[in-house]
Amino acid sequence: AQAGTPQLDIRDHYDSEDKRYSLTIKQSCPDTPETADKKPFHIPVQYGLLDTDGHDLAIAPEGDDGSSATLLHITRDEHTFHFNNVPSRPLPSLLRNFSAPVHVKFTLEDEERAFLMAHDSDAFNRWEAGQTYAEKLILKNVECLQAGHPISRDDHFLKAMRNIATDTALDPFLKAEMLLLPSESDLAQAMAVVDPENIHKAREVVVKDLALGLRDELTDLYERNVSDADFSPDAAQAGQRAIRNRALALLVKTDQPAYIDLAFAHYQSASNMTDAMAALAALRDTDSHERQAAMDQFYAKWSGDDLVVNKWLSLHATSSHPTTLSHLRTLLDHDSFSLGNPNKVRALVGGFCMGNQVNFHAANGDGYRFLCEMVQTIDPKNPQLAARLLGAIENWRRFDSSRQGLMRAELENITKADGVSKNLYEIASKLLSA
Q: What is the pLDDT of residues 67-83, one digit of tens each?
């Protein structure tokens, strides 16, 4: 009955003399236009307490008979839970299995996040610890770039990721996901003022550092997950493909010719679409003849299948290569593309404007002009599609003043254009007044 996403502010305390651990959880929810002074929610918090070896402690909170030892019920503004006979300070793993859709504010040191990455028995929290650590590291690097300071290597993060890469008991799917850093769009959501150029640079530095630091481990992962078996969609083979393709993507980020050759060979030997697309995705940001050769071969093979060609168009659109936009303009006249086909427009134009943060938000405004041109060209025949594409700049006020000015100018041009459709005018006007 109440709108808004609750926030949990969590503090902990350990008394080494009494061997007593306390966990205090305070909930709050921001006012919304229809409701102020929100009442407390009933928030289930599934948790675990990890000892110094990373094992879950089987200790129930004080006053609990043990029947709900892994679930805390938050029903008041603030709760404090006490745990007795705790041999050493534990590390809490909170909201396991994503037990409640809330924001959590709980301070952890880098070493503690790395510990959760390596030992947490809950797959979601283990992944979340890694994503939060990586986000913090990349955004710190963004600040360094903005201030003109050098970026330093984070040994704790590299060690934690090495533990992930070498953990033979870890599910291959989870391992592949944990080796994937937060996307540029996710990182942008964490910034008050979005800086797409430095987000891209900072993320690429961390990715390359990770790839170089784990080169041996990634090579081993790639080689150990080669399979000669016939293709099967079962979980075992799918997991092998996932971790092998993630290792390949990272190895290519080292910019070493041997790994670019490996990605090209991976493409040529691919017996399924997953592996072929993974190889193309690994090559798409490289400045190599292998990239063009693989792209050309793929199109020649699949030119008669529109669904597959759309994937090919999306790969072109999302490349971070600085010549991407000029290349996209040539693809507008390619046999594979048609402005009259909404799926192709979404793949190429939408893929660039919504999935290529660094090039679409180029400081010179070329990406915004491209979007405006495409929207106005499409509008007479498909106003609904044109209006949807404009969603690429719906958050224009979250950028720096220069980019805001460039996006505002394009929105104003759309509203003033002769013959603009009602759909497009309405969306552009709303964005201007938001």
A: 556 899 999 999 999 99
